[in-house]
């Protein structure tokens, strides 16, 4: 990370060419360019938040869809069993209600026997009617669940289209922002004294917004590098972001990160410059380190060691700052990695340039990194 002093030094180096436009016109043009760049930067930020929101909506819908699928499977099996039982009952009653049974039933001279026969017959008939009624209720439930399934599939497809459109919008906004950045850099070279004067004034007046703006000009944020980051490890992915079943009999669960097939002791690297804001134990995740990368973007590394770390330590991109540790979790050892934007999980594979292979078929496929 570049501090304020180094920012000033770097800007001073950039502002080397003496040629300049008239002062008032130049200040006005600079202000317009900076304003346009700031708008593009804010737009990119909002677009990224929308992507994260759509990603989480998609994840919740996939969970609901899996629940509906399980309900349909259960009801189908239940209805099939009840149908077989009802068929057997009908066949039995038809056999028992032959001519001999009816003659004996109607010609019974003993009132007590006649009453018992009547009660038995009515009870059996009532039981069968209840069975058929329950069968019809289950059939109605199945039809309702099938309608839910069709509706949720339609919504899921709509979300995928919306998410893809949002990704295209992100690329378009990023292109516009970079074009403005190039214009600003060109003007910096042509009009160095004026830009230097503006920066000095911002530092003197402690104009933090403008200082932050200049810092942003010199340092690309993670939003500018979405899809271009290097992962925290080079190993394959065992489980991916999304909806997951760890085995055929386990429930369907949300998986908010990715689990790398990293051996114990293998290095863990920072995906970008950041500061340590928290480390410790998290139930279900184990020993965890969280880095703050600015703009409300955090990376989380779990099942790792904590040697020689302090809150506030600055970690440079690509630096090995921890090692994979042993885990007692049933899904096995390996590095667990999350990215969060405004506290909400976002798919890490949308940010990483090299997509690792998946080792498990029961996790999200690489073709579905949306």
Name the shape in a single word: elongated
* Class inferred from helices and paired strands: alpha+beta
| CATH fold-level name of the largest domain | Helix Hairpins
Strand content: 5-15%
Round the mean pLDDT to the nearest integer and report it.
77
CATH class of the largest domain: Mainly Alpha
Which series of helices and strands comes N to C? Answer: HHHHHHEEEEEEEEEEEE
Structure description:
This protein has 2 domains: 170 residues, Helix Hairpins (Orthogonal Bundle), CATH 1.10.287; 132 residues, Glucose Permease (Domain IIA). The protein is 53% helix and 14% strand. The chain has 6 helices and 12 strands. Strand 7 and strand 8 form a beta hairpin. Helix 2 packs antiparallel against helix 4. The longest helix is centred in the middle third of the chain and has 80 residues. The C terminus is likely disordered.
Could you list some keywords that capture this structure?
2 domains, Glucose Permease (Domain IIA), 8-stranded antiparallel beta sheet, 370 residues, Helix Hairpins, 6 helices
Give the helix/strand layout:
Blueprint: H1 4-14, H2 23-96, H3 99-106, H4 111-190, H5 192-204, H6 208-218, E1 237-239, E2 242-244, E3 253-255, E4 258-260, E5 267-269, E6 274-282, E7 286-292, E8 297-302, E9 314-315, E10 320-323, E11 336-341, E12 344-346
Antiparallel strand pairs: 1-4, 2-3, 4-11, 5-10, 6-7, 6-9, 7-8, 8-11, 11-12
Helix pairs in contact: 2-4
């Amino acid at each position: 990370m570049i501090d304020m002093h180094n920012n000033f030094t770097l800007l001073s180096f950039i502002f080397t060419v003496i040629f300049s436009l008239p002062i008032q016109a130049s200040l006005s043009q600079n202000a317009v360019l900076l304003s346009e760049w700031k708008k593009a930067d804010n737009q990119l930020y909002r677009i990224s938040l929308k992507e994260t929101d759509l990603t989480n909506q998609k994840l919740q819908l996939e969970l609901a869809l899996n629940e509906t699928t399980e309900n349909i499977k259960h009801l189908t099996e239940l209805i099939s069993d009840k149908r077989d039982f009802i068929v057997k009952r009908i066949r039995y009653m038809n056999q028992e209600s032959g001519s001999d049974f009816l003659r004996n039933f109607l010609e019974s001279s003993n009132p007590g026997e006649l009453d018992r026969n009547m009660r038995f017959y009515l009870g059996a008939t009532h039981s069968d009617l209840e069975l058929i009624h329950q069968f019809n209720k289950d059939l109605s439930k199945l039809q309702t669940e099938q309608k839910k399934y069709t509706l949720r599939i339609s919504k899921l497809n709509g979300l995928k289209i919306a998410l893809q459109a949002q990704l295209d919008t992100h690329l378009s906004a990023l292109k516009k922002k970079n074009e403005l950045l190039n214009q600003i850099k060109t003007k910096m070279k042509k009009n160095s004294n004026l830009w230097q004067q503006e920066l000095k004034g911002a530092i003197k007046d402690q104009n933090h917004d403008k200082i932050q703006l200049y810092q942003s000009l010199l340092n690309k944020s993670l939003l500018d590098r979405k899809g271009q980051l290097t992962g925290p490890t080079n190993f394959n992915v065992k489980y991916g972001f999304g909806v997951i079943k760890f085995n055929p009999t386990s429930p369907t669960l949300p998986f908010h990160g990715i689990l790398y097939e990293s051996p114990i002791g293998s290095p863990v690297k920072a995906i970008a410059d950041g500061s340590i804001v928290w480390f410790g134990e998290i139930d279900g995740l184990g020993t965890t380190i969280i880095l703050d990368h600015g703009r409300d973007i955090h990376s989380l590394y779990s099942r790792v060691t904590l040697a020689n770390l302090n809150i506030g330590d600055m970690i440079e991109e690509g630096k090995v700052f921890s090692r994979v540790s042993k885990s007692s979790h049933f899904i096995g050892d390996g590095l667990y990695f999350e990215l969060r934007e405004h506290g909400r999980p976002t798919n890490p594979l949308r940010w990483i340039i090299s997509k690792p292979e998946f080792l498990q078929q029961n996790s999200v496929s690489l073709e579905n990194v949306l």
